[in-house]
Amino acid sequence: MRELSLHILDIVQNSIAADADLIKLIIREDIAKNLLIIVIEDNGKGIESEDISRVVDPFVTSRKTREVGLGLSLFREASRRSKGDMKIESEPGKGTRITAYFEYNNIDRVPLGDIVGTIVALITTNPEIDFIYRHVYEGREFVFSTEEIKAELGDVSINEYPVLNWIEKNLNEELRDLYGGDL
Amino acid sequence: MKSLEELRELRSKVQKDLEMRSNSERPKIIIGMGTCGIAAGARKILKAVMKEIDKRGLDVIVTQTGCIGMCEKEPLLDVKMPGKDRVTYGNLTPADVKMIIVEHVINGNVVEDLAIARFDEGGN
């Protein structure tokens, strides 16, 4: 994957396959500590503890754990390549949390890329799932929540094109403000 | 979250459009979003699909599926027209997406050069 946002799109697919209806994404950029942290948390069916070590190994993936596949091992590789690591916490019936750490300025760290494209793609194809996206940059932050948008929309679906276009525009503005002054 | 008023205005506009929409079955476009598909460019294809549908004001459902085992032909996209077979297209570029939407979704002709599989779903 050439962008971390593509890994995010991919890892969220596991949450969707695990029947989650609320998926949280946190991106934390802490330049002072030279750290980038990505957290993907869901309320899906979770992973049995004996399977947690298996899901990152591409060679033991069986039919039973097929919904996990290669994505997690690729994500872990991306973090380890940039002197970081990936952690999986899960409780059957409650959900799963994936945390990936990256050395911020590491030359082998792939860029974050089109994170807005990832969020919009997820909402377009999964209007029934709620997403919360929180982005922290140098102590500033913003939170985007589909629950909040759905409350405004009432009976209008969140994946109608005018709404998707609004979300895209809004997220781009939020990100620009978040990075504002530093770019 | 900013400009929620804008969203309220959008809501009433979309509601009016929805009233005009017919109740007949809508065409469906399904994007392959497995790890393989995403690595091969599925997000770019989805973006192209949305741009084209939005530009032409089409009433189409866009949805996703996981890996369907044709990874070497990723990125993949399926078109399911009401009452017709589901057709899978592969090795796609954003330019192909435009052709598929014009030829297949609007004109109803399968783009044979790009089609790699066809499933009989009994018109469902």
Automatic annotation (TrEMBL), chain A:
Q: Which residues form the Histidine kinase domain?
A: 1-106
Q: What is the annotated localization of this protein? A: Cell membrane
Q: Broadest EC class?
A: transferase
Entry membrane topology = Multi-pass membrane protein
Q: What is its main location?
A: membrane
MF GO annotations: ATP binding; phosphoprotein phosphatase activity; phosphorelay sensor kinase activity
Q: Where is the signal peptide?
A: none
Q: Which GO terms describe its biological process?
A: cellular response to phosphate starvation
Q: Which PROSITE patterns match?
A: HIS_KIN
Gene Ontology annotations for the cellular component aspect, listed alphabetically: plasma membrane
Q: List, alphabetically, the PANTHER family matched.
A: HISTIDINE KINASE (PTHR45453:SF2), PHOSPHATE REGULON SENSOR PROTEIN PHOR (PTHR45453)
Q: What is this protein called?
A: histidine kinase
**Organism, scientific name:** Iocasia fonsfrigidae
TrEMBL record, chain B:
Q: Does the keyword Iron apply?
A: yes
Q: Which InterPro entries match?
A: Thioredoxin-like_sf
Q: Which GO terms describe its molecular function?
A: iron-sulfur cluster binding; metal ion binding
Do you know which CDD domains this protein is assigned to?
A: TRX_Fd_family
Q: Which UniProt keywords apply?
A: Iron, Iron-sulfur, Metal-binding
Entry's PANTHER family? NADH-QUINONE OXIDOREDUCTASE SUBUNIT F
Report what the protein is called.
Answer: (2Fe-2S) ferredoxin domain-containing protein
